[in-house]
Structures are given as C-alpha cells and as structure tokens.
C-alpha cells in the first residue's frame, strides 16, 4: 500500500485498553470480620464442592468445630462409611453361584459318569429320594466298566449302595485271612478290588 494512498488515512488503530484493575480479594465471611477471605472451608455434607471463605484465624476456628456427620445417628454414620468404600455405588458379592455348589466335579463330567441333565431335586445324585437306578439315562458302558460290573456280579444299572454292599461282601468272602491263603481266592480278591476302584473312579459309586 502506498503511504500517500487515500485509504491509508482511514486506518485507525485502537488505543490500548487500560489494564483492568485487579479485583480485590473477597472479605472473610465470618460475622463481623472485614479481613481478606483467602482460605476455603467446606460448607458441609450434601454441599460438596461449595466453600466458605474465611481469613486465616477464622478458618482455623471453623475447622475446630467442623463435623461432616453432624445430625446423623451412629448407625447412619457407620452405613455411610461402609458405602463410601465403594464410592456409594451398588455392589454384589463376587463369585456367588448357588447352582455351582450342586454341580458335578470336572472329573465326573470328563469321564462321562455324570448324567448331563438338569437335576434340581437331586434324584440322580447319590442319596436322592429316587429308589431307581442312579443313572436313569444310562450311557453306553466302556469295556473295562462292563467287565468290572461282571467281576462284581452286578448289573450295569446297580446303584451306588448296591455296588458298595457287594464290594464289602466279596472282600470279606475272598480275603486271604478268610481262605487260608488259597491262591485262587487271592486272585479273585485282587480282581474285586481293581473292579471296585475302576467303578469308583468313573463315578459309579
């Protein structure tokens, strides 16, 4: 732009604004005090984020008598403190699963011994009210399991109580002390023990 341009004279610069005067600090809010209120003090419960402004002397006086729980009973104070741990948010007990207490062991499920049906009344489990076989929906027996039932002289639908009773009976019958060291009876004794252990491991008793 040329300095002798007619537009040059029209340009006007604004005068610098005078620096704003600094605001005077607020006065102490303590009755009858005219000192500077430069210290904050909390208003109280249910007024979080709000503060009084006092001078140094009066903020000390205020803090001496300040009680956040003023007006609450001991029970209400205890409840507030307990809820404050979680930020006053609702909580639930971790790991609560009532149905898990009655669920089968992982080994039972993996071996197939546990009948995979819902059983809320405990008819399938040992000690249930049902007088029928323990496994109403019987799975196909494995060869060793079938042989173990044959060794025990029982049917595949025998209950846990029947298996245990039969085991005690055969052990008592074929124990070496009861047969004078008979080798044949000793072999039978070992076979019964192995059969019972296999049935027990697979969840039949």
Automatic annotation (TrEMBL):
This is DnaJ domain-containing protein. CDD domains: DnaJ (cd06257). InterPro entries: Apopto_cytoskel_mod, DnaJ_domain, J_dom_sf. Keywords: Chaperone. Residues 12-35 are annotated as: Disordered. SUPFAM superfamilies: Chaperone J-domain (SSF46565). Residues 147-204 form the J domain.
């Amino acid at each position: 732009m040329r300095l002798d341009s007619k537009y040059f004279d029209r340009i006007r610069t604004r005068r610098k604004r005078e620096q704003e005067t600094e605001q005077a600090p607020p006065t102490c809010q303590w009755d009858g005090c005219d000192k500077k209120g430069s210290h904050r003090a909390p208003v109280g419960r249910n007024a979080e984020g709000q503060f009084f402004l006092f001078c140094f002397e009066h903020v000390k006086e205020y803090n001496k008598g300040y009680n956040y729980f003023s007006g609450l009973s001991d029970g209400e104070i205890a409840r507030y403190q307990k809820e404050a741990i979680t930020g006053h948010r609702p909580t639930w007990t971790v790991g609560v699963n009532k149905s898990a207490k009655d669920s089968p062991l992982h080994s039972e499920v993996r071996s197939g011994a546990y009948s995979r049906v819902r059983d809320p009344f405990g008819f399938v489990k040992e000690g249930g009210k049902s007088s029928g076989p323990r496994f109403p929906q019987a799975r196909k027996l494995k060869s060793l399991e079938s042989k173990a039932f044959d060794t025990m002289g029982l049917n595949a639908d025998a209950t846990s109580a029947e298996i245990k009773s039969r085991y005690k009976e055969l052990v008592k019958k074929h124990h070496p002390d009861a047969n004078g060291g008979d080798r044949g009876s000793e072999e039978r004794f070992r076979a019964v023990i192995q059969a019972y252990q296999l049935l027990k491991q697979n969840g039949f008793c």
